[in-house]
Inverse folding.
């Protein structure tokens, strides 16, 4: 896949190719160090094994919309820089799975579970779970460190990279802050809509949409007005994206989402939907509904009946409607900001398409 | 502490000041996000709370020795870049403590234990240990990401930073590879001297001495010959440094080292000293001695008698003498390499002093 091929036309394949190539190059100096190579192979499998490449996709179209090339050296450099976002995401997911002690991801064992299994199969010394944890923490760290290297060594004019650096830095701090807040709010039973919105702003809006757009546009030398418009677009789409996720986690068709309906409640996730539900119940003095929602998210293992009652309660108090209306409203303001940005085509059409896909998807 | 003060004269204080200043600046954009501020404050306390600043110290003297300024803007920039090594070290220690499930570090609770305590004190929801683990993983991630930011935003000519980047990248990959190998060897009971030496080369020699020297010298624009000489010096001193550590962990005075003698054996550490001991026992057909060493490192909780027997066995088979001789030999070749580097003073004298301190210390 050389640089003459049109990146625009097959973006995910190009992103994956850039990742594969970078991971191969990065491990060259350390390839003699078996068994570390096994850990690096696990990282490669994880990174190439799935995901919608949503962050580099937003970043790429911002690059293109701000006048960045679709082919040639600069395009390859920009592609490498935005593909690095997938290594950040690999770290976030691998460490998240450790923190949640999740067993599977994308239909395969999580990294810590896979390494614990290897330990057990070989009847190694010590605890398999502890070995799995150590391997996953370290593999996530490699992904985080290499993300920076991939961004820092992309073949781009130094001025372009310097322009995008503040966005790159903010993105990493914001996702870690969002993760921390999420863990903290769940522990501290912090139930306000403000707290849920803050997590949503950091974890989804900033990390998944705003900063990728910011990075792509800054790499192409966008001015402050264009970046502002893109940040407004990204913020609104990002929040709407998460709200759609909340609704799918509650009411989505298990056949389509791959998760049983109400799964977020079962996991005790403090979504904005839940916070709005609790607030509505209080305002409407619907104590039974409030209790039903509250119970489902605080019980360690709520029964199916408890989850069902909470799902019904969230509809009854109007939280589902409120959130649907908010998605429509946010999509509207986002598209206004996008028009204001007046991006070059095909970027404007592509970002419009992404906005609709993110906010009205069924999985 | 402005840049007119002589950095040479009070290096650790200047390194700590640079760290404090950077951590303060980095958190500014996210300061409104309580309770994440609490996590950042824990990172600051950890970073400023101790440590010998050994990595930035080696890097600084390489910078000076290769012609870097002792004061002024460039000196401040170099100081920031080398102080960033302490944030890598913070990540390594915080994540290491999670992986080993250690309770205390530098006389204080480890980060994951402190956050678990906070959780328990507030009687929050869920498991305190799980919350502590999540907080420590995320705080380590912040340190790793911010280390890069601190290095990348140091006020230095872009050419200088670009020259040091390969060393910066190698250092991060090497420390993670070394940690992984260490965990792996311990699990797989990998007992060869070659395996122990490989961990030593990556975790101590490369990460603690070679790459810091490489970074400092490259920032000052050192040529390949000078860098080669420093890398030889660093490799030998780094390995000798770890061997001294192995001996102190075995025979050190508990009053001075702060750890009971034989503690490394008790923790099952696969040091080069242990590997040499096992090899010597085999070569000399001293089966009882070999068994004593082997038992102490593989038992989950060896008795004091078992540890004592292993300590005696390591002396008996001559492993202690072999390692002492190796330290002397490595220090000699290291100092030859240093002379070959022909550094400007006071750097040459300082590095000679550091070499002696690292290899003949009593703690």
């Amino acid at each position: 896949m050389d640089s003459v091929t049109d990146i625009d036309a097959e973006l995910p394949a190009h992103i994956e190719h850039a990742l594969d190539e970078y991971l191969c190059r990065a491990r060259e100096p350390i390839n003699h160090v078996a068994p570390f190579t096994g850990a690096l192979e696990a990282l490669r499998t994880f990174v190439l094994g799935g995901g919608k490449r949503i962050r580099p996709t937003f970043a790429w179209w911002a690059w293109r919309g701000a006048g960045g090339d679709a082919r040639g050296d600069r395009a390859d450099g920009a592609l490498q820089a935005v593909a690095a976002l997938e290594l950040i995401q690999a770290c976030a997911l691998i460490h998240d799975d450790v923190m949640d002690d999740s067993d599977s991801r994308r239909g395969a064992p999580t990294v810590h579970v896979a390494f614990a299994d290897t330990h057990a199969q070989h009847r190694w010394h010590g605890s398999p779970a502890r070995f799995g944890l150590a391997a996953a923490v370290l593999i996530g760290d490699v992904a985080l460190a290499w993300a920076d290297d991939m961004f820092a060594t992309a073949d781009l004019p130094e001025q372009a990279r310097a322009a995008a650096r503040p966005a790159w830095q903010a993105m990493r701090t914001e996702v870690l802050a969002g993760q921390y807040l999420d863990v903290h709010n769940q522990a501290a039973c912090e139930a306000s809509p403000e707290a849920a919105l803050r997590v949503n702003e950091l974890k989804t809006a900033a990390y998944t949409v705003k900063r990728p757009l910011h990075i792509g546009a800054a790499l192409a030398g966008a001015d402050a007005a264009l970046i502002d418009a893109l940040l407004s677009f990204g913020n609104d789409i990002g929040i709407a994206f998460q709200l759609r996720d909340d609704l799918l986690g509650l009411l989505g068709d298990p056949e389509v989402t791959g998760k049983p309906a109400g799964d977020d409640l079962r996991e005790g996730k403090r979504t904005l939907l839940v916070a709005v539900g609790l607030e509505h119940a209080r305002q409407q003095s619907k104590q039974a509904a409030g209790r039903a929602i509250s119970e489902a998210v605080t019980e360690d293992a709520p029964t199916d009946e408890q989850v069902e009652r909470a799902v019904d309660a969230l509809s009854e108090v109007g939280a589902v409607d409120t959130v649907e209306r908010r998605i429509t409203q946010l999509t509207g303001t986002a598209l206004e900001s996008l028009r204001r940005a007046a991006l070059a085509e095909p970027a404007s059409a592509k970002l419009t398409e992404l906005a609709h896909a993110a906010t009205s998807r069924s999985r």
User: Anything to note?
Assistant: The mean pLDDT of chain A is 93. Chain A touches chain B through 56 residues (CB under 8 Å). Strands of chain A lie at 104-105, 108-109.
